[in-house]
Amino acid sequence: MVTEKAFLSRSLSCRRQFLGSAGAATLALTSAPALADTVVKLLLPGGPDERPMTTAFPQKGALILQRTRPPLLETPFEVFDQSLLTPNDRFFVRWHWAVIPTAVNVDTFRLTVHGRVNQTLSLSLNDILALPRVELVAVNQCSGNSRGYFQPRVPGGEWSHGAMGNARWTGVRLKDVLERAGVKADAIQVRFNGMDEPVVEDAPDFMKSLDIDHARDGEVMLAYAMNGEQLPLLNGFPLRLIVPGWYSTYWVKMLNDIEVLDQPDTNYWTKTAYRIPDTPRANIRPGETDVKFVPISRMVPRSFITNIKDGDRLQAGAPTLARGIAFGGDSGVSRVDFSSDGGKSWQAAALGTDEGKYSFRQWQLRFAAPTRGDQVLMVRCTSSSGAVQPDTPNWNPSGFMRNVIERTAVVVA
Amino acid sequence: MVGALLPVALVVGIAFAPFCAQAESQLSLKSVNFDLPSGDGMFPSGPGADAINNNCLACHSADMVLNQPALSKAQWEARVNLMRTVYKAPIDPKDAGAIVDYLVSIKGVK
Q: Which chain A residues are Cβ-neighbours of B75 within 8 angstroms?
């Protein structure tokens, strides 16, 4: 049984994390020209699977360049082996529209709260900072994280597993903000809009809505800090909606407009986009018709080995450390099981520090690779609500909600 | 720009260091002003390259398309149609066919 000490040595304190990210920034400065020539292989079936690494984006270290404009930047997977919290400068980035304000003045910024409220609010950042402060560690994961592994392949951002991150979010409860405005009795949804805009004028502005009870559940937050620092511009400075346990499409960035609605939101991004089959695991057969689609919402459990890669060589019979991360999705991690024989037998892993039910949870164990030859390592998360990762992948036309037990092929010699 | 970033990060880090230990300490936010990469690279040359360069690059860089897997002609038609009808890309109707043909030539299912 592994002791907690091993985890403590790997999980960074806030202060050490800051020092670490400053060090990474320095490194990025000195190595930027070389990184421009660095290519990462994502092993996506059928390809293309080579992507350049980039350090060209403000407040960001080395990230995988999926799209330059509007930016889609992926966290290199080794970052998840280094700390429980994903450093701000390595945190993934995803924007829908290319008109992104590149200058934000903290003195003139205002958040408007309007619609079905007793009084319209225009809040400065100081007004918001004066509200009761809350903190929460939560995973932010793109609906299409790991889309590149769908077979048959589907169009979209062709992510590997790095369109996710885990951060300590600091801010205020949405509930407290809505209470200040006074929500009218006929309110049914709350719509969130950020400062980004489409390039083409009549294209649909990016907005998302939550039901009023969800918006007032006391967990949904407006965050002004991430891992103890103000948000990077590309992660939504100065304010971002935090919807714990839900996919990041709802986590509206550069949030400056909250509208309380007395009708269901009919805007494209809420009503039409980001929909999944209303089936278990959002799973259908390719080409299947007559399927009912519903909005994507809660996340499902996932887990990853972070210290052993596909193709690594292990020594037969030698004690080997396996470690990684797991998350329960919309609830905590109940257990993590590991298999070194392709799923024939499983053993429970030791779990690391519990930072709350919405956080990554580190896990680790020692095993001895049994027999020489090709072997498959697997890791499986069971959430505290009882959801277990499945052993076959789901498929849907948008490439959403992958959570199959991932396989790491190694050679035991 | 990058030269200015590091001192800012250090100042923020020092100001925020006590915040890690004590959640109720003061926190102040600093205005930001950055440039983003333009992402103005063109598509590889070939028949229809002018049509895709002229109609598609206003909204997104070419790398998004070049990173896509091979898709069927019907899938590419659906994609171009989505860009026109939902995302309101001002694609000249006479160019839409040329864009699809170009996509099939570089990213078609073989």
A: 155
